[in-house]
Design brief:
Distance between the termini: 11 Å
Radius of gyration: 18 Å
Strand content: 15-25%
Strand order of the largest sheet: 5-8-2-1-11-15-16-14
Number of domains: 1
Helix content: 25-40%
Largest sheet: 8 strands, mixed
CATH class: Alpha Beta
Number of helices: 8
CATH topology: Carbamate kinase
Length: 274
């Protein structure tokens, strides 16, 4: 199975959780799964920006990214976070290569337009050239993708775009022909009004959770990203699942773990691959 694993920056900040995640990825790789890792790093961007005297500004959870902030994002995501994660995977015996959108022209970005605010160099996935990633997979290598990329027609010296890793995961999953997209995070999945895990959600059910106030706060962008991924990959397994297990990736493939997202017209979904 070809699996795209999206990992949040919060799971990568400290050596302990980062090492545990890498062990989980190593176990899945040892079981024969092909893995592509996409990662965030918002807290790390915030820390370096603060040290450099930059002020954080957000709109609907997206970091407003001027040219100076775009440089910080590239340094942190394409450098510090990406290379640290690659080294941690290597320590677990996983051959990994770090990439951003510019490497091999793997993906380019377009400016993300909002009607009420200029987000600056905040982008969305535009075009994808999967050849480098697919070549790495054929060689048994795990590509580790930082979601920073030049614009499709970017000029020399123009800043890279900052892409929200959750939102980028769906189109990248489709372009790379993945069978599953796992959003590994610090929650067990989506909980209902009774605080019990919801194992399967459609877009309509998600809208009801939002309308009734059951889903609030940090869960809202998670739901949005998962629903975007389902629209991009209606035949793939799309799940929000917990990251805090040594076999988190393999566990997330099991029916009883996490929350699976399916189209409204889905009849049945076979998701127990564990």
């Amino acid at each position: 199975m070809r699996i795209l694993v999206k990992i949040g920056g919060a799971q990568l900040e400290q050596p302990g959780p980062r090492s545990q995640l890498c062990k989980a990825l190593a176990r899945a790789r040892a079981e024969g799964h092909e893995l592509i890792v996409v990662h965030g790093g918002g807290n790390q961007i915030r820390q370096l920006g603060k040290a450099l005297g930059h002020q954080d500004r957000y709109h609907d959870g997206l970091r407003i990214t001027d040219a100076a902030t775009a440089e910080v994002v590239l340094m942190v995501l394409g450098g510090l976070v990406n290379r640290t994660l690659v080294a941690a995977l290597q320590r677990q015996g996983v051959t990994a290569v770090g990439l951003c959108g510019a490497d091999g022209g793997t993906f380019a970005a377009r400016k993300l337009e909002k009607p009420d605010v200029d987000l600056g160099y905040v982008g969305a996935v535009d075009t994808v050239r999967p050849q480098v990633v697919l070549s790495l997979l054929r060689s048994g290598v795990v590509p580790v993708l930082a979601t920073v990329a030049p614009g499709l027609s970017a000029q020399e010296g123009e800043p890279f775009f900052n892409l929200n890793a959750d939102h980028a995961a769906g189109p990248l999953c489709r372009a790379f022909g993945c069978d599953a997209l796992l959003f590994l995070t610090d929650v067990p999945g989506v909980l209902g009004a009774d605080k019990q895990l919801l194992r399967r959600l459609t877009p309509a059910a998600c809208a009801q959770l939002v309308a009734t106030g059951v889903a609030t706060g940090g869960m809202l962008p998670k739901l949005e990203a998962a629903l975007l991924a389902v629209r991009e990959n209606p035949r793939a397994l799309v799940k929000i699942a917990p990251a805090g297990e040594v076999d988190a990736v393999l566990r997330a493939l099991r029916q009883q773990v996490g929350t699976a997202f399916v189209p409204d017209d889905a009849a049945t979904l076979e998701i127990d691959h564990g």
